[in-house]
Design goal:
binds magnesium ion; seven-stranded parallel sheet; 13 strands; alpha/beta; TIM Barrel; 15 helices; Enolase-like, domain 1; disordered N terminus; binds N-succinyl methionine; 402 residues
Length: 402
Amino acid sequence: MTSTAPATAPRIEAIELHRIEVPLVRPFETSFGRETVREALLVHVRTDLGDGWGECVAGRDPFYSAEYVGGAASVIERYLAPALLGATADGATRAVRGAESADARSAGVPLAASVAPALAFVAGHRMAKGAIEAAVLDAELRAQGRSMGEAFGAVRDWVDCGVSVGIAPTLEELLDEVTGYVEEGYRRIKLKIKPGWDVVPVGAVRELLGRDGLLQVDANTAYTADDIPLLASLDAFGLLLIEQPFAEEDLATHALLASACETPVCLDESILDAATAVDAIERGATSVVNIKPGRMGGYLEALRVHDACRALDVPVWCGGMLETGIGRAANVALAALPGFVLPGDTSASSRYYADDVTDPFVLGTGEHRGQLRVPDAPGTGVAVRDDLVREWASAPPITLTR
Ligand code: SMG
Ligand code: MG
């Protein structure tokens, strides 16, 4: 019998799901809620090339987006893992050929590049899909001895770090918190805003930072078109950008705001992939893009968004979803690409966690004050502490096999 599939076509042997709860060093409040613990879903894949880890960025509740940890675990268990684990070597090879014609970086990681096409039959669930792809990418790059930075096309060894500051109980507490981050060296402050917590805190933090301190705001969809005059009044504070003031689906109101104010409008929740990024840019709804790989179905699509924005001369920056060291490592590698010209929400592990499941990411000193070093070991470049994954488990692990 003949087969078109080479005997060596790599395949995924098992997918393990680990749900953990990691306490936050301080509560994190946004326009949609307050968190005191990060509930994370970690994906561990075993392939015949070796093992890898990925992190799902979905939150405990479907508030930032429709996805949430329980839903992500369920869709992986019921649909995504069976599709990947049942895939024949032949199926993987076909997907690999498709990837080769798509772009050179994907072609270098054929097994990871086969994940998105194999899962395209499931609508949405990008965070769940992205977590699996990230784990496969880690496994594949480890086997090749290549770091994520190298595979993605990193052009710097250190990345500039910003910090996202939640809504505080009082103005005084906000200023204390911001002062602490400035002392730690963060190069940019992002304030979470919502109706009733905007002009006054933004003005106070601007005063604290002085005219040259980099400052931006993020509303997580909390405003409506009626608020355009108020949002435009933030021009007075010299912000780098206003992030996602209106609903995810509402590009039109973002475009209206963009024409009514000087401050650049930046989309986060609305940008699902390269096509939605280009569309939003062309409609004038965004002139800066927040790239979060999980929201886009994975790092390979995030690279396409980066490339598309760069071709249009639109700056990008790396968002964050309170990642543990697993997701943080990959984000830092991504943030080292040339189009990432603004500091990211790539803060040190200590911004959220006293302990991490990997060695912590620590801000540099001297000339690297306010920066994180891009990992250069194979894959994510970080080792996962199995003992902590077990200790912090909030549910028994699930192992899905062929
Ligand atoms: O990882 O520092 C981080 C979080 C940064 O503010 C942050 N993320 O909309 O950009 C965003 C939010 C989403 C967080 S969901 C609780
Ligand atoms: Mg945001």
